[in-house]
Write a structure and sequence with these properties.
Blueprint (H helix, E strand, L loop, with lengths): L4 E9 L3 E4 H12 L6 H4 L1 H4 L5 E4 L12 H27 L8 E5 L9 H9 L6 E5 L6 H15 L5 E8 L11 H9 L2 E10 L7 E10 L7 E5 L4 E5 L3 H8 L1 H10 L7 E5 L4 H11 L7 H10 L6 H11 L4 E9 L3 E9 L3
Parallel strand pairs: 4-5, 4-6, 11-12
Antiparallel strand pairs: 1-7, 1-8, 2-3, 6-7, 8-13, 9-10, 12-13
Helix pairs in contact: 4-5, 8-10, 11-12
Length: 352
């Protein structure tokens, strides 16, 4: 097992605009109804999503007008910067650290394009040092919370004593498309929300740790690029989301999960799974694949209900909720994302 890394602080943030699922469904009916001759059947997507509310950087009226790259990017830069700053401040405060203490920043985001990247845009206002190492990461999608934390933990081990801040910020709602008429766009409208989560890590820390981070692993299946991702066109990002995803997870997830647990020397009977809540059907597929007892992913369903699928930050929201409810013991953080990839990370709480 790799040298454990201490998770010193964990913080989350959502934007101020609250979207009730019933309101979103009503507006979606007006937008998508004329595009689908059988749209009434698609209303079940909203009912069965397991979501009551989500949060957005833009008010719901913003989605009534067709938006292009310029406006989407403007809102992304403004909203992602604000959420990054809020989540980072909360994580650092919990760790008892200041921004000037941070040596490395890992920024994970796949829902907008920013050059300079988000951490550079907020650096002066937050108070990061001028010599801080910046590691922006794009393209991990929903796996970004776990993969980003794994990248951060590897950097901690490579730089003994360094404080590493990892921030995952995703504004999924900005990818809303009213012009394509694809069923995947209706599904995305029913599922996605905006949010950010931050984690502060250090190796061999004398500070009280929320949890210890151990081994990381990934598995990418060949010839699966069409399961999940973005299509890019002159209007913006367009969601790629295969209807075969739940079935694929149900059939394929068990083997790489089992292999990871073996390589990390984890006892299946004494290890909990903390999963990215990608959707109600995906959570059910994960339970089936991993042979989890009913109700085992209750906190995942609670985060999905309260926030929707925020992509990369979501699994860290689940971890934050589990820790707030005094979770103790060993766990595997798990998430699925474009590639198609499963990301795993071993943690242990309660021994800090």
């Amino acid at each position: 097992m790799s040298t454990p890394v201490a998770l010193l602080g964990l913080g989350s943030a959502v934007p101020r605009h609250r979207l009730e699922q019933t309101d979103v469904e009503r507006r979606a009916r007006d937008i998508f109804g004329p595009l689908f001759t059988r749209y009434p059947q698609l209303l079940d997507i909203f009912v069965n999503a397991g979501i009551e509310r989500r949060y957005s950087v833009a008010p719901i009226e913003w989605f009534d007008i067709a938006q292009g790259w310029n406006e989407r990017t403007r809102v992304y830069l403004e909203g992602a910067s604000a959420l990054f700053s809020e989540a980072a401040a909360r994580a650092l405060a919990q760790a008892g650290l200041a921004a000037r203490d941070v040596d490395v920043i890992v920024t994970v985001s796949s829902t907008g394009i920013a050059t300079p990247s988000i951490e550079a845009r907020v650096s002066h206002d937050i108070g990061f040092r001028s010599d801080v190492m910046r590691v922006p990461v794009f393209g991990l999608g929903c796996a970004g919370g776990v993969s980003g934390l794994a990248i951060a933990s590897r950097l901690v081990r490579a730089k003994p004593g360094a404080i590493v801040l990892m921030v995952a910020v995703e504004l999924c709602t900005l990818a809303f498309r009213r012009d394509r008429g694809a069923k995947a766009d209706v599904v995305a409208t029913a599922l996605f929300g905006d949010g950010a989560a931050a984690a502060v890590l250090q190796a061999a820390s004398l500070r009280a740790a929320l949890a210890r981070i151990g081994d990381a692993g990934e598995h990418t299946w060949p010839r699966t690029l069409d399961i999940m991702g973005w299509a890019v066109d002159p209007t913006g990002f367009g969601v790629v989301l295969s209807r075969a995803l739940p079935r694929f997870v149900e059939q394929k997830l068990a083997t790489p999960a089992r292999n990871f647990m073996k390589s990390a020397t984890l006892d299946r009977n004494a290890t909990r799974f903390i999963c990215h809540p990608g959707g109600a059907k995906v959570l059910s597929a994960i339970e089936t694949a991993l042979e989890l007892a009913p109700g085992n992913l209750a906190e995942e369903r609670g985060i999905l209900r309260d926030y929707g699928n925020m992509s990369a930050p979501s699994v860290l929201f689940v971890l934050e909720r589990a820790l707030s409810r005094k979770f103790s013991g060993k766990a595997v953080l798990a998430a699925l994302g474009p590639g198609f990839t499963a990301s795993f990370l071993a943690i242990e709480a309660g021994n800090g």
